[in-house]
């Protein structure tokens, strides 16, 4: 009888980390890595920065070459999509109809880009989630002199705006919220970013998207047309003059609206309105797929079924509530944790349950990371540890407004849960990490932040 494999669904940073950890922690049985894209696992953060700019070629994004993957002895299924999972039997269904019975499954399918009503089929309207998306948009931005409207002023929209301005394009950044990235970093840090974007020539607009205007893409009039403008509802005010509300969660501050409004001429449109967890293929009622795949503190969604990365919503031991992080470092760390805990579960079962390939005895451990994220915009690096979104209290210290240097402390329910630094060297932020590693009382954390800032220069 052929031993059943462990399958990792998602050839992503989290999926690759899980596959490597399974081998490192002692899994000797079959190991299948399934990815819906045709590419080897690659790094996504550079898509909206170095790759879009043209500074890097796709090869530099590869997390591992084929030769580096060979020692893992993977059954590598690229260009293959999982379409279903029977939880009770741990059986995957693949897009060709194949059934793959597994001893365990790690789900690392990540996110899918959101779109807006009426955008499908319009030439010149793009999303940016995959390598192919980024290469397509890079090709269109290569010539210079384009009018680019970016819909969504969250992290992705701001990063793409910075790159496009550096390439010499006319950029308009639109959000339903007046302040860029405010949901992620707070109003004061977001205002510093807005100042930087304005200083670099980005036009900031506030408003809901009402629709798109097009012209025939081909002389015959066939097809969906070429975008020529973005329509904003309710006037579409400059960001400094007004504020709207009502965007869907995770939209980066943009909603489709109704009614007449202003018109933004556009040769290209980037929809940077957030993403949704890629869980639509998980229809088994044993799984909770509300805002990602719900897991316990060990990253387990069900017996033998684990999740990692952007798709996983799990019980964080220190924060007392389910969390889902769309951050690169979390993907790697959670992939390793899911692998370790799956093997610990299998090792506790009868050897036959592991297909005859016994794994070293180990204990499951709760996954309790200190989240880290960063964003590069122009010459400014923003870095944060802990939780910055969803804070009920934020205290920002602006160290140098002209240089956009600042530190912010984020609190929730009387405890400090996150810290952010803009324009500071990494070593300074690392010194602040301990403040939120295990959430401290707010006043105690404030004093530690002040002491750390007073201990040395804030310049890079």
Taken as a percent bin, the fraction of beta residues is 25-35%
- Summarize model confidence as the mean pLDDT: 90
For the record, give the distance between the C-alpha atoms at the N and C termini, rounded to a whole number. 61 Å
Query: What does the main sheet amount to?
Result: 6 strands, mixed
Number of helical segments with 4 or more residues? 11
**Helix/strand-derived class?**
alpha/beta
Strand order of the largest sheet: 3-2-1-7-21-20
Structure description:
- The chain has helices spanning 13-24, 50-53, 66-69, 131-141, 155-166, 182-185, 187-199, 328-348, 426-432, 434-437, 442-454; strands at residues 6-9, 31-35, 75-78, 82-86, 91-94, 99-101, 104-107, 111-113, 125-127, 147-151, 170-175, 203-206, 209-215, 226-232, 237-238, 263-265, 268-271, 275-277, 293-295, 300-302, 305-307, 312-316, 321-323, 372-377, 380-386, 393-400, 405-412, 415-422, 440-441.
- The longest helix is centred in the last third of the chain and has 21 residues, at 328-348.
- It has eleven helices and 29 strands.
- The protein is an alpha/beta fold and 460 residues long.
- The strands form seven sheets. A six-stranded mixed beta sheet has the order 3-2-1-7-21-20, covered by helices on one side. It has a six-stranded mixed beta sheet with strand order 9-17-10-11-12-15, covered by helices on one side. Strands 24, 25, 26, 27, 28 and 29 form a six-stranded antiparallel beta sheet that branches.
- It is globular, with a radius of gyration of 23 Å.
